[in-house]
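hiii, so i know i said id send this last week but things got crazy w the move. better late than never?? heres the sequnce for the chain we talked about at the cafe, plus the structure i predicted for it. fair warning i was half asleep when i ran it
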Amino acid sequence: MRKQLSKVCFSATTQIHSLRRIVHTSARSSSATILPLHIVHDAYSGASTTAASQRSSKYMSSRDIIQKEKLSALMEVLSCKTRSYARVWSCYVDFMNYAECDGLPLEVHQAVLRRCVPGAYTLRAWTARRMQAGQTPCIPHHFEARLKTVIRNIRATGADATLDDYHVILHQFAAAGYYTGAMQVLTELTHVCKLDPESKTFGLCLKAIAHRLSLPIYKVQRADMLADASKICRKLLKEMSARDMPLTSFNLDLVMRILKEVLDQEGFYQLMKLGYGIDLDYPDHPPLQDSSMLSPFSTAALNTTLDMLGRLGNVAKLVQTFEVLTQPLPPQASQHYSQEFDDEDDFGITNPASTEPHQTPHARPNTTSYNILLKHISRAGHATFARHYLYQAVRLDRSVDRHLRSQLYRNPHGTPAPHFGLNRGTIIPNMELMRWVGWVARQTIRRKKNDIAWYSELRDSLPSPPSEPSSHSPSSPPPGVSTALDVDLDTPSIPPESPPPEKIFNINLHLNILQKNLDELVAWYENHYEVVLSRATQRVKERLGRRVWAEKNIYLLSKNARVNVPRNAWTRMVNFKQGKTSFSGEHSGRIMRNGWVAGYKGLRAPRPQPLQFFDPSSMG
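okay and structure toks below
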């Protein structure tokens, strides 16, 4: 195709150079008014019409040259490596104003369809930024009219759009979360064009629904949107079942994300049994109903399962599922499972012939897994679980870093990328354990600084890597962060026997992630944690100070009893100082409500309150 188009462009270029002095190309509007679109020949006209016909043929030759020049400009834009969708669309419209729809080959229309709109990830970021800023677009997809125009021009040539052409449109609608338009495209390609949809076709429709539910939604529209999304998802599943189409691992992951957002507990539990062979009521037992086509249980599926159970508010099942699906029992433990329900078989080893070894599906947790787990546990108010898993996350962070450093010494350019790293999202949910969380944050900040210094020194001493394409770029998101658009529907399903490909460690990306986590932690600690701790400490001191001034007893941990504390002793104990104002109106500390000054050792003091708001001397 490219050779044919290049020949057309070359012939057009030679004619343009030969007649450049004769033909004057002007703007589109002036050309449209000068050049005639149709030439009508009169059979009864005499010799007086001969000159007019010659002038018309001259105008037609000029029109053909201009048309070829427009075609040359369009092909030049399409052949550029840089993506300039505005120039492609401008040249395409400019050419179509001088030619009919059949003036272009089908391949050129298809190339314009793919190049006249921005990329899916560019459109995704642009749409998300506008919606987060409260600027909801008036139309769901900004370039929908362009896509419709190109498809209309393809039909005008007498050809039909292929399934890949519709997949390009579905990719665009999925990036914007335009699931209603995706369903209209699916209806058109199945009923109008009589095309057989593939698993990828349904996956793109599911991706549009899942991505739209992850974007901001107005409260007044949320209930209707969730009901509509659930209805469309069930419709797609029924149509896939009617076509006898298997549910791939990627489509299964998207359906789970949709069921999580609509909080369909029954459908989610049933899908876990059919897709992964996991019964969430008994996660360490083999499923009662056998499924021959089980998908591999991935880390993204684990995160979706934890988020679903956390939203349902069942903390016990959340902790049970996390422990079983991340640290499964060995296959030999299945011989202790009894397949009968007699009281005599409730203990001991059953008949090995009747019990097959069963390996519970499991996945390795990442940073997002612990963030989701700690978020829902802290919201439920389980301080014991929160302390346990935060401490476990701290130890896992050090263990992963030590293992990474040992592997870098052996194979610096073939080391797998780490799967876990402590960040702000792991620490913030545990604010009920305020003082201990502050200690964890300070330790994490110190360790992050040491890690950055160590890896920076290692980067300077490493030899140059071999010339191979890296799995990550410094601008790519950190590993483990998975969204609906990150599901690659073009990748074939991986069988359960083969492990997924591991990502190779990139030291530049790792340093960027460490620096980002450090900046977020430092900003949170200085701007939020210190202020909250100071305010909470201040309120406790004021509440106990009122009891001391009223000569009531207070509990002291040092004496493990409730005792009466004198005012002077309490002042020294909590580091209060008598508020004294200088002539310039300045004071050395923060004046409290009772007129005393707090020292705030090691903490950032908030703005001072008005002087003598409450004077404790008036109570004597």
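btw The beta strands are 554-556, 561-563, 576-578, 590-591, 596-598. thought thatd interest u
miss u guys!!
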